[in-house]
Design a protein that fits this description.
Blueprint lengths: L4 H23 L8 H20 L4 H8 L3 H12 L7 H4 L1
Helix pairs in contact: 2-3, 2-4, 3-4
C-alpha cells in the first residue's frame, strides 16, 4: 500500500500508462508494431518537458534538476520538441 501522496500519484500514473499501452497493443496487429520504445518516448517526452519547464517558470536549470538531467540535455530536448519557444537566445533577451 502506498504510504505517501507522491507514491499514490506514481501508482496512478503507472496504472494509467499500463492501461494505455495495453490498449494500444491490443488494437494493433503484432506485425505492425515496430520501434514501440521510441514511439512511446516521443509521445510522452514533449508533455513531460512542457509540464516541467512551465512548473519551473521557464528556469531551465531548475527543470533539468527536477528531471534529473544536465541543463544541456534538458535544453537539447526542449529545442527538439519546441524549437525556440522555451529556449530563446541571449541576444534576443538583450
Amino acid at each position: 500500500m502506498p504510504e505517501s501522496i507522491v507514491e499514490i500519484k506514481q501508482v496512478g500514473l503507472t496504472a494509467t500508462i499500463d492501461t494505455l499501452i495495453r490498449d494500444y497493443l491490443g488494437s494493433m496487429s503484432k506485425d505492425k508494431i515496430t520501434n514501440l520504445y521510441d514511439m512511446v518516448l516521443e509521445q510522452i517526452e514533449p508533455s513531460l518537458f512542457r509540464a516541467v519547464i512551465e512548473h519551473c517558470r521557464y528556469n531551465q536549470s531548475k527543470a533539468a534538476a527536477m528531471l534529473g538531467l544536465s541543463r544541456g540535455t534538458c535544453r537539447t530536448k526542449l529545442i527538439k520538441y519546441f524549437g525556440d519557444r522555451y529556449c530563446g537566445s541571449r541576444e534576443e533577451a538583450a
